[in-house]
Amino acid sequence: VLLGNVAVGKTSILNRYVDNKYSKDYHCNVGVEFKVKSVSVNQSTIADLKIWDTCGDEKYRAITKQYYRDAQGIILVYDLTQRETYEKLNDWLKMIKETVTENPVIILVGNKLDTGDQRKVTTAEGQIMANRYELEYLEVSAKTGSNVFLIFEKLASELVTRELQKDKDEMDNHLRSKLVNMDVGEGTKKGCC
Ligand code: GDP
Questions:
Q1: What was the pLDDT predicted at 123?
Q2: Per-residue DSSP letter, 9
């Protein structure tokens, strides 16, 4: 799920990633649009990403929450040229923490890297925010496409790593419980004969 204030460039990032398109037009999605794209991870695994685009407008917050409550991954976007969108990040992260049911992978993204001297937030400040919440941090431009693919590659890679770890943990637990049962079986045999 893409989250962040209105007009930070969430739809533009999604359109750049999925359709390799960019438009100057602006419209707010009421939290019901999604796109799907397959991404290859470590040249072997294919992950199908179902990416939800949301509107950052306060009046749609309740709807938006339904879409990120069970999200496995969150791309939290702010606009490098609008300082207030950076200052709102603490609120977003608080809301996310209060809402999510699982522990999603969260990537912090500063968008509009192409704007040069219109920039109002430094890379160091973005990184400080990311470090505070232990998030990955990327600066991108939906307009030029710079680093946009990297966001989704990092996200997919982390999600696949987590899934593989989960499978491994389940397998370990299964084997462990089998061994315990075997121990009990052996013990019973020794005890009774
Ligand atoms: P959303 O509300 O977060 O989905 O924002 P949009 O994707 O609709 O973008 C809001 C406005 O910012 C639009 O006019 C976009 O053309 C513009 N925009 C989005 N990404 C970039 C970018 O990387 N660079 C620049 N210069 N403008 C951008």
A1: 98
A2: S
Pocket test for ligand 1, best of 3, 26, 35 (most atoms within 8 A of CB): 26
- Most informative mutation of 12, 35, 82 for ligand 1 (most atoms within 8 A of CB): 12
> By C-alpha distance, which of 69, 56, 64, 58 is closest to 27?
56
Spell out the alpha helix ranges (H) of 111-147. 123-132
Whole-prediction pTM: 0.88
Q: Are strands 2-3 and 73-79 parallel, antiparallel or unpaired?
A: parallel
78 HSE (CA, 13 A, CB side): 28
- Ligand 1 centre from 182 Cα, in Å? 61
Per-residue model confidence as pLDDT tens digits over 80-139: 999 999 999 999 999 999 999 989 999 999 999 999 999 999 999 999 999 999 999 999
121-130 in b/e form (b: 16+ CB < 10 A) is beeeebeebb
- Ligand 1 shell residues, CB under 6 Å: 6-12, 24, 26, 28, 56, 111-112, 114-115, 141-143
Residue 2's beta-bridge partner residues? 53, 75
